[in-house]
Amino acid sequence: MSVVLEFRDVHASYSGAVVLQGIDFEIAEGESVGLVGRNGAGKSTALTSVYGIPTVTGRILVGGKVMGRKRYEPTARGVSLVPQGKRIFPNLTVEENILLGRASGRKGQWTLASVFELFPNLARGANRPGTQLSGGEQQMLAIARALMAEPLLLMLDEPTEGLAPVVIDELVGALRQIRERGTALLLVEQHIGMIQQLADRFLALSKGELVSQGPVGELATRAVQELIAL
Ligand SMILES: Nc1ncnc2c1ncn2[C@@H]1O[C@H](COP(=O)(O)OP(=O)(O)OP(=O)(O)O)[C@@H](O)[C@H]1O
Fold first, then answer.
1. 87: which of 129, 134, 141, 198 lies 20 to 30 Å off by Cα?
2. Does the keyword Ligase apply (predicted)?
């Protein structure tokens, strides 16, 4: 299976403050991987490093090619991020927010109709302003927008933050379907149950280093829990 995303000795820092201290991993097409670790371990920074948001050294490759400095490049090559905080545009309707994802120009399987089928709540609220949606619906909107860019790999940063258990179950169902349609997932989550339901394997970060990894069944072992417990 071909590799979609590859980190080779990646260091990341903000104004000289080092957050990632040289991490290596790869995500293959169609895989589902959970990235876990305590608050401040560097999980979000690992995702935003793909876009060159912190200062990055080392090599990040998408589809086997080293990323340049242009922010749109990873999305254009097939890696999309659903960021923490969702970033819904308040002056645009749900449908307009979704269609923004098309800007990548990639062709593929996702259309307005297919994302509405995945998230029927969005179909019902298609003409409402994006910010009038509930927290769960805004998360679904952020995912729908990311799908419109036809990612080979969808990266999600704490999608369950602040959501009720019933909404989390809906999200798990939708992410399963996305995966069944061939999209790889890289999931940052404090909600370990979500990773256990969705991921094949995990990567654990502690203080900017990759300290453990393995099949998701090992996530519950005491050694791993001690590394990642809040
Ligand atoms: N834009 C930024 N500017 C400066 N420092 C930052 C910035 N973003 C994150 N940091 C710092 O980098 C470190 C790692 O943060 P990061 O958000 O990557 O961790 P995390 O593992 O995702 O944690 P959390 O679960 O709290 O989001 C923290 O010390 C944080 O304060």
1. 198
2. no
